[in-house]
Amino acid sequence: MQKTRPKHLDLRVIKFPLPAIVSGLHRISGALLALSIPFVLYALEGSLASAERFEAFKACIGNPLVKLFLLVVLWGFMHHACAGTRFLFLDMHKGVDLKTARLTSWVVMIVSLSLTAAIGAYAW
User: Fold this and answer.
1) CA distance 100 to 106
2) Around Cβ 96, how many Cβ atoms within 10 Å?
3) Which of 13, 50, 51, 103 is deepest in the core (most CB within 10 A)?
4) Which residues are CB-neighbours of 33 under 8 A, at least 6 positions away?
5) CA atoms in the 13 A half-sphere facing the CB of 74
């Protein structure tokens, strides 16, 4: 009898549980933060170089696309920090049972999005 097993996994069809989504977003946010380092350092260096470049920097971050990029980077930082804290506790074998793992996944999502919205609203 031959088993009919899939030859590949179709990730668009699989329904992931929330802890798996938080884990995937943690990896994505880490990659986003790593890729944004050169842009953030360039902006910091430019804003500290002279008054003219600081004015140019202020004009640049007035662009809605730049604001959206900075908001996404802010979300990446908030999510990565919240999920990283959750994973530190999981590494210490705290909250590894299913009910607590699901609850802390919800907490990570709610807190990271709330902090992003609050800081984003305050900054702009």
Assistant:
1) 10
2) 12
3) 103
4) 73, 76, 77, 80
5) 19
* Whole-number Å distance between alpha carbons of 15 and 8: 15
Return the C-alpha torsion angle 38, 41, 43, 47, nearest 10.
-160
Structure confidence at residue 36 (pLDDT) = 96
Residue pair 46/90 in contact by the 8 Å Cβ criterion: no
CA–CA separation, 79 and 116 (whole Å): 9
Q: What is the pLDDT of residues 37-64, one digit of tens each?
A: 999 999 999 989 999 999 999 999 999 9
Report the pLDDT value the prediction gives residue 10, as an integer from 0 to 100: 76
Tokens linked to 69: 């990029």
Overall residue count recorded for the chain in this entry: 124
